[in-house]
């Protein structure tokens, strides 16, 4: 005997009664560090290690002048050193013929000590994407990724060696936080990239169309949580945007990303430097985000979104929401609707969503959404009035995409031989 199916009222669409599959976040191939209560361990403080040598880029212009006077040199030499480093992208005394020959080497070595040694570089996208592996003075390893696009050149910089945020999907955080990078180590990634560009090392310069090209955009999306190294990151940013004594970049071309350190977001809102702010959200509900982004145990989704909205109100700069689409984990249609509701509840025109496609990884829970699911997620957000653009990710083939930067055992071996 079979039970008849009740007739559906006219005009009513079919209702899906099956529960969407829900994959829970978990680590694969490594064990997540936990605290005494069994929660994912968060590292906000940098482990104590030997500090990198003080560099010109760690100092303000006035501090550079004072430092030179302490060395028995006239203060105007600071401007000459700044020009060589920030405009000519060199720390080589042989190229600084405007400095007195007698103590040129000592002066340059004292104010521009070598901070990073290139271990290797990997290229993809026909030479338009380059990943650098750098060894710092104490042996710590960091990576940065240089990318040419039509009309701009973007550098993804690291702000910490390792990361203490312990997100289960991110390769960088697997080994925890090694240490904070200095302001000069952050800036030096840009200077070294500019040197490579000036030497013709990045793809086809005709895509930009002028000979004096350089890095135009910075994204703090490499190794580390930028806002956990707040003071040094902001010193580096001030040097990047200083048109007289620094790199002279546009603040609008600099993006600072965070997983949601709310007090630091509010602090950033008051800096009066109009950088682009990006919140790595990845889930609109606390139940999932607590597992996906462990810092959510400190500051919940609504708190992070409120701080992001405050950034827009104080700076007038539209906020970016970063959202890695992970198959059956956070790509459900109802989550797109919930995200739209939460963003629209805080007003219109203040935010833009960037869904990020993950690498397709067969057999892993950390794999890309199906294309139709991905498109539906984007469609729902746009239909709700939230500007949404699927982000172009570069460097997947060389482990240079978002969440892939990590110092491997192979990297350690290579660094030891340099």
TrEMBL record:
Main location: cytoplasm
Listed PANTHER family: 23S RRNA METHYLTRANSFERASE (PTHR30544), RADICAL SAM CORE DOMAIN-CONTAINING PROTEIN (PTHR30544:SF5)
Gene: rlmN
A Pfam family it matches: Radical_SAM
CDD domains associated with the record: Radical_SAM
GO biological process terms held by the UniProt record: rRNA base methylation; tRNA methylation
Enzyme Commission identifier(s): 2.1.1.192
Family: Belongs to the radical SAM superfamily. RlmN family.
Active site: 143 (proton acceptor), 402 (s-methylcysteine intermediate)
Ranges of Polar residues composition bias in the record: 15-30
UniProt KW keywords: 4Fe-4S, Cytoplasm, Disulfide bond, Iron, Iron-sulfur, Metal-binding, Methyltransferase, rRNA processing, S-adenosyl-L-methionine, Transferase, tRNA processing
Protein name: Probable dual-specificity RNA methyltransferase RlmN
GO function term, MF aspect, one: metal ion binding
Ranges of residues in domain Radical SAM core: 149-397
Entry keyword annotation includes Methyltransferase: yes
Function: Specifically methylates position 2 of adenine 2503 in 23S rRNA and position 2 of adenine 37 in tRNAs.
UniProt enzyme class: transferase
Binding positions ([4Fe-4S] cluster): 163, 167, 170
Stored Gene3D superfamilies: 1.10.150.530, Aldolase class I
């Amino acid at each position: 005997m079979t039970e008849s199916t009740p007739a559906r009222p006219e005009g009513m669409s079919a209702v899906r009664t099956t529960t969407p599959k829900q994959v829970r976040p978990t680590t694969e191939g490594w064990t997540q560090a936990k605290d005494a209560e069994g929660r994912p361990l968060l590292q906000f403080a940098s482990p104590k290690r030997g500090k990198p040598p003080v560099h010109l880029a760690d100092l303000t212009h006035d501090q550079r002048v004072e430092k030179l006077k302490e060395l028995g040199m006239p203060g105007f030499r600071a401007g000459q050193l700044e020009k060589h480093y920030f405009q000519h992208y060199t720390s080589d005394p042989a190229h600084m013929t405007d400095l007195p020959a007698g103590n040129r080497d000592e002066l340059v070595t004292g104010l521009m000590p070598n901070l990073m040694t290139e271990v290797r570089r990997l290229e993809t996208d026909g030479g338009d994407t380059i990943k650098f592996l750098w060894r710092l003075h104490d042996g710590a390893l960091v990576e940065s990724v240089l990318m040419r696009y039509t009309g701009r050149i973007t550098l993804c910089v690291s702000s910490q060696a390792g990361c203490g945020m312990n997100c289960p999907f991110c390769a960088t955080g697997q080994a925890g936080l090694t240490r904070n990078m200095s302001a000069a180590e952050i800036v030096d990634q840009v200077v070294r990239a500019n040197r490579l560009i000036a030497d013709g090392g990045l793809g086809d310069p005709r895509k930009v169309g002028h000979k004096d090209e350089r890095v135009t955009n910075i994204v703090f999306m490499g190794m580390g949580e930028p806002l956990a190294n707040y003071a040094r990151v902001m010193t580096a940013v001030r040097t990047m945007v200083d048109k007289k004594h620094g790199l002279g970049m546009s603040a609008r071309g600099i993006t600072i990303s965070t997983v949601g350190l709310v007090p630091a977001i509010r602090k950033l809102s008051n800096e009066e430097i109009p950088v682009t702010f990006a919140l790595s959200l990845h889930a609109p509900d606390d139940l999932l985000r607590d597992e996906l982004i462990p810092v959510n145990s400190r500051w919940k989704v609504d708190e992070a979104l409120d701080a992001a909205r405050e950034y827009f109100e104080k700076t007038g700069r539209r906020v970016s929401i970063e959202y890695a689409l992970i198959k059956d984990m956070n790509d459900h249609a109802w989550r797109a609707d919930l995200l739209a509701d939460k963003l629209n509840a805080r007003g219109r025109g203040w935010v833009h969503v960037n869904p990020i496609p993950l690498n397709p990884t067969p057999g892993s829970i950390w794999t890309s959404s199906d294309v139709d699911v991905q498109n539906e997620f984007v469609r729902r957000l746009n239909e709700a009035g939230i500007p949404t653009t699927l982000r172009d990710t570069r460097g997947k083939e060389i482990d240079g995409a978002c969440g892939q930067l990590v110092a491997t055992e192979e990297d350690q071996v290579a660094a030891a031989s340099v």
